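Support request from a user on the community tier.

User writes: "When I paste my structure tokens into the form, the page sometimes reloads and wipes my input. The last time it worked, I copied everything first. Here is what I submitted, just in case something in the input itself triggers the reload:"
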């Protein structure tokens, strides 16, 4: 009896309840045109892949939507005879569908889903051993910094942080025992751009280049095509897209790397449950249309902020004024939905703005359909030492916006109101 993508046996006439004649006809068709799990044709577009890859109808019931296989275990036909799954830590069909979908979106064959973005970062680092060295983007996400600085050293793995926008500095930081270069681009929260292809060109045997692609998503940036070996996402953000689930994924097209990470995924067991896998799978189906809207609104917000005299700086790679705009245009198909800015008036005014927006919720995280505002110094980068934050420019007057997909006029209007309300009349006078 043939098996589908999940190793399920195909239904018999008894399970489908179809008339015998029908079944005969279908069997004949099956014989001439065997139904393979849907694999992306090279020509399939991004949105098609997001909706189809890994998501064949359930062969047992015809369920069009991938079911939530809410089960810890799978009954075996005989000892060791399974339908492809035996225990949900090791594998679950809903998770398998998610892994197939997201691997395909990054143009790869393999993916391991994790219970959070940080579990995914840790999963990627499972390719390292005691004595190995890591080079990392110095302004990476605060939680990544904490893992690299406070956890990995306990296992004999050390990290050098470097401005990975500086190719010479990155080259100089790579030592004989460097096994992993960890890049984040655009960086969080200052939206600096790292030239992935240039850093990948520094590769030598045994050196793995990984990219945290959370901010850009595969819709705008595909690091494996630029020469990276591993891509990691906090799927909590744009891939899930609705701020209702925490998760992470590590994607690669290298079978040997995948085998090591998949071993860690099962051995350590930081996996998403079936519901979380389902929510992420469902969210990612609409990634293409959401990302286009996020970007359209983010452009409008960046341009609006730039037009105001009471805003000291705007950070958005889509602005011609961004110092790496040309690199961003070359490396990315679009610039994403995150905008950071410094209002004039210092930390006090920044905090007043963050308190008074209504469409923008004051919350950590990003990438959901709803707009969020945060103070990176305290919220997303709280785990980074104060001196290092100051050195990186992550100062208390900085605000980060995750621009959602509400109506543009409401989003811009909300910021306008909050900026105006935070200006005292003396300050208005001073700026004018
Ligand atoms: N990487 C980036 C760029 C992030 O912004 C985050 C979280 O904000 C993470 C990794 C960690 O992901 P999670 O919160 O899902 O563990």
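"...and here is what came back when it finally went through:"
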């Amino acid at each position: 009896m043939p098996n589908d993508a999940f190793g399920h046996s195909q239904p018999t006439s008894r399970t489908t309840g179809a008339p015998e004649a029908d079944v005969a006809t279908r069997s004949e068709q099956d014989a001439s045109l065997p139904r393979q799990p849907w694999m992306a044709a090279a020509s399939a577009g991004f949105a098609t892949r997001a909706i189809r890859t890994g998501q064949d109808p359930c062969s047992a019931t015809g369920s069009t939507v991938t079911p939530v296989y809410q089960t810890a275990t799978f009954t075996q036909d005989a000892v060791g005879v399974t339908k492809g799954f035996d225990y949900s830590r090791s594998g679950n069909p809903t998770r398998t569908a998610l892994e197939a979908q997201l691997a395909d979106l990054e143009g790869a064959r393999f993916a391991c889903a994790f219970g959070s973005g940080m579990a995914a970062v840790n999963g990627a680092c499972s390719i390292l051993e005691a004595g190995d060295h890591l080079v990392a983007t110095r302004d990476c996400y605060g939680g990544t910094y904490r893992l690299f600085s406070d956890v990995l050293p306990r296992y004999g793995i050390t990290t050098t942080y470097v401005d990975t926008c500086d190719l010479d500095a990155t080259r100089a930081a790579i030592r004989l025992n460097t096994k992993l270069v960890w890049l984040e681009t655009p960086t969080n929260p200052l939206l600096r751009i790292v030239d992935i292809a240039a850093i990948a060109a520094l590769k030598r045997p045994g050196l793995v280049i990984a990219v945290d692609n959370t901010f850009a998503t595969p819709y705008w940036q595909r690091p494996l095509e630029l020469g990276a070996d591993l891509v990691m996402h906090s799927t909590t953000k744009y891939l899930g897209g609705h701020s209702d689930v925490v998760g992470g994924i590590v994607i690669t097209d290298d079978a040997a790397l995948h085998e090591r990470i998949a071993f860690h995924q099962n051995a350590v067991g930081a996996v998403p449950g079936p519901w979380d896998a389902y929510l992420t799978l469902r969210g990612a189906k609409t990634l293409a249309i959401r990302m286009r809207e996020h970007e359209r609104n983010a452009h409008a917000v960046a341009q609006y902020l730039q037009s105001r005299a009471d805003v000291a700086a705007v950070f958005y790679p889509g602005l011609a004024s961004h110092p790496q705009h040309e690199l961003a245009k070359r490396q990315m198909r679009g610039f994403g939905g995150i905008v950071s800015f410094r209002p004039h008036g210092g930390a006090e005014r920044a905090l007043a703005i963050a308190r008074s927006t209504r469409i923008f919720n004051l919350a950590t995280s990003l990438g959901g359909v709803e707009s969020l505002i945060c103070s990176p110094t305290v919220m997303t980068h709280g785990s980074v030492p104060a001196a290092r934050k100051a050195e990186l420019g992550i100062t208390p007057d900085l605000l980060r916006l995750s621009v959602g997909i509400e109506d543009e006029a409401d989003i811009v209007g909300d910021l306008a109101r909050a900026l105006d309300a935070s200006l005292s009349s003396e300050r208005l006078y001073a700026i004018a």
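Agent notes: The reload is a front-end session timeout and is unrelated to the input. Residues 1-67 form one domain. The chain has three domains: 1-67, 93-284, 287-431. Escalated to web team.
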